[in-house]
Amino acid sequence: xxxxxxxxxxxxxxxxxxxxxxxxxxxxxxxxxxxxxxxxxxxxxxxxxxxxxxxxxxxxxxxxxxxxxxxxxxxxxxxxxxxxxxxxxxxxxxxxxxxxxxxxxxxxxxxxxxxxxxxxxxxxxxxxxxxxxxxxxxxxxxxxxxxxxxxxxxxxxxxxxxx
Length: 163
Hints:
With 163 residues, the protein is mainly α. The protein has seven helices and five strands; from the N terminus they run αααββαβββααα. The strands form two sheets. Strands 3-4-5 form a three-stranded antiparallel β-sheet. Strands 1-2 form a two-stranded antiparallel sheet. The longest helix is centred in the N-terminal third of the chain and has 21 residues, at 2-22.
């Protein structure tokens, strides 16, 4: 057991060294917040042998719209995902982008992201799902940014970038 832990620790150190030597600019460009906000895929070889393959780092570059949506989340919910607020129209708004049930269901089903008839809770609190729906909405009909009029205009976020 002790030997296995030692090998794992050595493998982790060697893997880090290989990763740092292969991709130093990429590693320096990523902040801790980026690591949590934008998913990266790591392939790690647990045991380093002379024939081991190098560590592969794949980072997906966020689009301008992805970055705008992150700012919108801050304006809408201050980054909170499990928030439910009674809106001025007497209906509840949910999650990080403050979707109302009808909007979430209609556009989620339209883009194939929510199954027809699906129970909305806990889906409506899924921030990644809300971002995907919002992104489709704006990409397919730019004027739908108006769903977040207060944040865009009154809270000075500014208009979303056009694709």
